[in-house]
């Protein structure tokens, strides 16, 4: 599935512009579960191009609060664990983590241990944009981030949330 062109003005963008606000907000919350972010994007409509929509997504709610980050992280399963829900966000998460094979028990065991260590250190789930990455790569990133201080990790988590939101926003445009 390829992302829409940044100059796309096709039916997907028209649908985003034309959705009733509550319906669009619901779809945006599947991208990033932060109310302020979703409402800002919905309120900036209409978008002439996908690039304008992506710019809005990148700049909405520029400084995520600790509560907003906690809310957004609550919508994400641990890396290496399959989301069990049948909602849009759970489906996307399973697809995004497709590089982690359930059959590689050594890797999944290492990811579980890394997740526990990360959560003890930072108090929340380890989050990384997993799309297109192997399980080994995700584990290496996890280990490299364990040495970060809390402020550095907060900044990284906010960046990763925005990366994931942008990828998911492309899916909203395509749907």
From TrEMBL:
Transmembrane segments: none annotated. Residues 17-170 form the Oxo-4-hydroxy-4-carboxy-5-ureidoimidazoline decarboxylase domain. Gene3D superfamilies: Oxo-4-hydroxy-4-carboxy-5-ureidoimidazoline decarboxylase (1.10.3330.10). One of its GO terms (molecular function) is 2-oxo-4-hydroxy-4-carboxy-5-ureidoimidazoline decarboxylase activity. Residues 88-100 have a biased composition (Polar residues). It is an enzyme of class 4 (lyase). Keywords: Decarboxylase, Lyase, Purine metabolism. Its EC number is 4.1.1.97. Pfam families: OHCU_decarbox. GO terms for biological process: purine nucleobase metabolic process; urate catabolic process. Pathway: Purine metabolism; urate degradation; (S)-allantoin from urate: step 3/3. SUPFAM superfamilies: UraD-Like. Residues 70-107 are annotated as: Disordered. NCBIfam families: PRK13798.1, UraD_2. This is 2-oxo-4-hydroxy-4-carboxy-5-ureidoimidazoline decarboxylase. It comes from Haloactinomyces albus.
């Amino acid at each position: 599935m390829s992302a829409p062109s940044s100059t796309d003005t096709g039916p997907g963008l028209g649908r985003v512009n034309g959705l009733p606000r509550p319906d669009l907000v619901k779809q945006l919350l599947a991208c990033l579960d932060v109310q302020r972010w979703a409402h800002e994007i919905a309120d900036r409509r209409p978008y002439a191009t996908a690039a304008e929509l992506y710019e809005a997504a990148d700049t909405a709610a520029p400084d995520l609060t600790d509560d907003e980050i906690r809310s957004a992280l609550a919508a994400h399963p641990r890396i290496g664990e399959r989301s069990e829900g049948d909602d849009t966000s759970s489906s996307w998460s399973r697809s995004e983590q497709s590089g982690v094979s359930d059959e590689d028990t050594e890797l999944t065991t290492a990811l579980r241990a890394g997740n526990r260590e990360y959560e003890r250190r930072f108090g929340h789930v380890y989050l990384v944009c997993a799309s297109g990455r192997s399980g080994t790569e995700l584990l290496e990133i996890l280990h490299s981030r364990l040495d970060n201080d809390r402020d550095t990790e907060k900044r990284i988590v906010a960046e990763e949330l925005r990366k994931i939101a942008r990828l998911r926003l492309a899916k909203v445009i395509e749907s």
